[in-house]
């Protein structure tokens, strides 16, 4: 679903993307609170002065990095090779509730939690995460609607299903990066499967 990690920035196109790649690496290494332009510059294989030529400061960089990743997510979803709506939805849920994160992903999502907390009082971050959540909702809504049209899903409210899954995923993300243990994830995933079987997937006659 969402491409997260250094792989996303393996082949930066131009100086701006090189700066965003450096920002991502610095975020993963230091988190938002300890992120500085100097630390971003340390990850950049060019002059640090280029950062100020393209971006106004730390938050401008972080938001641009988040926007880049969101755009990649949307293009990845649009280019999905999975045609069957049920398989696409299950692949999305598999990603949303994956039981294992490597260290890089764990740190990135912990940083995402920091940034979401800023959205409480910073309109720029609030706007980004509002649009990010809506992008997730929109993609899931499209999958459910296609499933209904192909008669592999029962009649249901696609927007409500999408909002339910996105909200559960956000809650799971907050819990797993702020508390020890992930044994509860399997139980949550099982309940989601029950929900999908009862409320979304078409039943055999």
UniProtKB/TrEMBL annotation:
One Gene Ontology term of the molecular function aspect: transcription cis-regulatory region binding
InterPro entries: BetI_C, Homeodomain-like_sf, HTH-type_TetR-like_transc_reg, HTH_TetR, Tet_transcr_reg_TetR-rel_C_sf
Keyword Glycoprotein: no
Keyword terms of this UniProt record: DNA-binding, Repressor, Transcription, Transcription regulation
Highest taxon of source: Archaea
The HTH tetR-type domain, residue ranges: 13-73
Keyword Cell inner membrane appears in the UniProt entry: no
DNA-binding region of this protein: 36-55
Protein name per the record: Regulatory protein TetR
The species this protein was found in: Natronobacterium gregoryi (strain ATCC 43098 / DSM 3393 / CCM 3738 / CIP 104747 / IAM 13177 / JCM 8860 / NBRC 102187 / NCIMB 2189 / SP2)
Organism taxonomic ancestry: Archaea, Methanobacteriati, Methanobacteriota, Stenosarchaea group, Halobacteria
